[in-house]
Amino acid sequence: MNKRILRLALSFLLFGLLYVLDQFTKGLAVERLKGGDPFVIWKGVFELQYSENQGAAFGLLQGQQLLFFIVAFLVFAAALYLIWTLPEKTRYLPLILCLTVIAAGAAGNLADRVTQGYVVDFLYFKLIDFPIFNVADCYVTGATGLLFVLLFFGFYSEEEIASMIPGRKETQ
Questions:
Q1: pTM (two decimals)
Q2: Residue 60, SS3?
Q3: Please, what's the b/e burial string for 27-62 (b: 16 or more CB within 10 A of its CB; e: otherwise)?
Q4: For 117-169, what is each residue's pLDDT tens digit?
Q5: CA 4 to centroid of chain Cα atoms
Q6: What is the DSSP letter of 55?
Q7: Which of 45, 93, 131, 141 has its CA 20 to 30 A from that of 7?
Q8: Residues forming the active site
Q9: Do residues 7 and 91 lie in contact, with contact meaning Cβ atoms separated by under 8 Å?
């Protein structure tokens, strides 16, 4: 089997597993938390609390569904393009994993927006009164942070990063 096709297939498998996990946890939140009291994990520190968010991170851009669809489409297109075109070297695996995880998080929240018009959030750090979030948000935030570290702190050379730009030649 072609290595690129295998890489894409494995990325789709991981994407699917992460998407299902996100939707499963949101389903549990709806079933067990909606309309009820928060479930306290660690009193005063962390709890599960149902929330519906029509915006983006921290409740920004409330009701801007078209913008969220466009951003999600661009994330999927960029991830798919890079996963397909990155050189067939093991050293690019962390980059491919980050892209896959970011796309899965975007898909999880997009699915909520399409089916319900809002995103289900339920993870709440009460100690610092951090905005309520969900598993898909963890995917996007964690993988974006790791992607930033990989790209900007020397894991890949400037030439390798430049080669990821469409129209540039692959680094040997």
A1: 0.87
A2: coil
A3: eebeeebeeeeeeeeeeeeebbbbbebbbbeeeeee
A4: 899 999 999 999 999 999 999 999 999 999 999 988 888 888 888 877 776 55
A5: 22
A6: S
A7: 141
A8: 121, 137
A9: no
